[in-house]
Amino acid sequence: MPGSPAPHLRGATNLDARIRDLVARQRTYFESGATFPLHFREQQLATLSQALRKHERQLLDALHDDLRKNETEAYTTEIGFLHAEIRHTLRHVAKWMRPHNAFSPLVIAPSRGALHYQPLGTNLILAAWNYPLQLSLAPLIGAIAAGNVAVVKPSELAPATSSAIAELVSNAFAEEYVACVEGDVVTSQTLLAQAWDHIFFTGSTQVGRIVARAAADQLARCTLELGGKSPAIVMPSADLDVAARRIVWGKFTNAGQTCVAPDYMLIHESIHDTMIERMVAAIRRMYGSDPRQSPDLGRIVNDRHFSRLLSLIDRDKVVFGGDHDASDRYISPTLLAGVDMTDKIMADEIFGPILPIMRFSSLKDAISIVGQRPHPLALYLFTRDSDDEASVIERVSFGGGCINNTLVHLGDPNLPFGGVGPSGLGAYHGKFSFETFSHRKGVVKTANFLDPDVKYPPYNASKLGVVRKLLG
């Protein structure tokens, strides 16, 4: 059901009226039941996949314009990621939609319970700028699979990609089904003021609080995919060469502008200097002797973030990198050593190509350091000791993570992706996206052939005795 954007949405002068009209039309369309059938959901997922292929060149160019993403990185982390998510969803959505039987206790016999997945309705998806395509459309895959309508608001900080998404969505879908609304903070505020059944937000913790308040005012469901300072812990038993490559890759992909990038490193004191040497070697292998010339290193999204990142670099603690060029928004891969928890760079999530490093003497100390900060979105532990692994997983609260790797947990659609506490609320990817955009409705169906009198008044000691046996 592709269609062009309705003229009055683009032509009207009153933003609030335009958006209210759009949301009203989407609600009417949802209430018609058109989005509910399986074949419709599958058709729309296929349409989205086709649109991604049709617009691929435009999307790749836009991602390069906004963030200087090279084609391999852009395809892997944005377009290819979405294709894989769509393919997984198409393979399983029929099974996800089926009612799931639940065990019913004897006390309510002759009855049986079942879980039914009900679409939530109207959904607002507010995306971030660092992976502007993936973070706009990955939640949409879940919304479509669950039988909803949605409005997607890409980030204005990635304007080329926002424009490309708007064109893709308008070419693929009728506006009363899926619409893309571009704009700045005022547009986001206007969207948040509408009545939604669910708001899905990816971005900073600070803005996440604003979104959560808006959702609370409407009593709408809310999913928050936020961030935090995600640690990488390297133990003496780790394979240092492999750890160095994987941490460097995870940190400097997208110039460090990744919500689950290693935000700081904790290296055991016995391998501290050696590990830094291996990381320097890994940076040089990946980005060359002059990383500025590498086509594989992205740039900072805008001047404001560039200035913020420069203010975090303590020149006295730079052990590698630290080069920068404001005219190109370039910051080289930078390692800082001798950092402690009171340094400015440890106050908030870095979101850039700067990696502070601290020593620790025991795993207990490392766990204590991590515990001094709010629960991180991700954690990466490098070790070949199963006891170390068990201790960290059991004792540290974090959204998700890897043992002996970084970032790749995002690519497994069988795992939920989301934070805990200040790093997020709710999860998505794969079936978890379907569930995020669904209401799990419990229904009990009771047969008529038996209707025990024990539950009906008048009550007596005999009935109470039966109840005690059943419930006690």
Task: Give a quick precis of the structure.
This protein has 472 residues and is α/β, with parallel strands linked by helices. The protein has helices at residues 7-11, 15-31, 38-54, 56-67, 71-97, 134-145, 159-172, 185-192, 205-218, 240-252, 272-287, 303-310, 363-371, 386-395, 431-436, 461-471, and strands spanning 100-102, 111-119, 122-126, 149-153, 178-180, 198-202, 221-225, 231-234, 264-268, 318-320, 324-325, 330-331, 334-336, 354-360, 378-382, 400-403, 424-425, 438-446. The N and C termini lie far apart (56 Å).
Characterise this structure.
There is one protein chain. The protein has 472 residues and is α/β, with parallel strands linked by helices. The chain folds into two domains: 7-226, Aldehyde Dehydrogenase, Chain A, domain 1; 231-418, Aldehyde Dehydrogenase, Chain A, domain 2 (3-Layer(aba) Sandwich). 42% of the residues lie in helices and 17% in strands. It is built from 16 helices and 18 strands. It has helices at 7-11, 15-31, 38-54, 56-67, 71-97, 134-145, 159-172, 185-192, 205-218, 240-252, 272-287, 303-310, 363-371, 386-395, 431-436, 461-471, and strands at residues 100-102, 111-119, 122-126, 149-153, 178-180, 198-202, 221-225, 231-234, 264-268, 318-320, 324-325, 330-331, 334-336, 354-360, 378-382, 400-403, 424-425, 438-446. A seven-stranded mixed sheet has the order 10-13-14-9-8-15-16. It has a six-stranded mixed sheet with strand order 5-4-3-6-7-17, with helices on both faces. The protein has a three-stranded antiparallel sheet with strand order 1-2-18. α3 (38-54) runs antiparallel to α5 and α3 packs across α7. The protein is globular and about 85 Å long. The termini are far apart. The model is unreliable at 2-12 (pLDDT under 50).
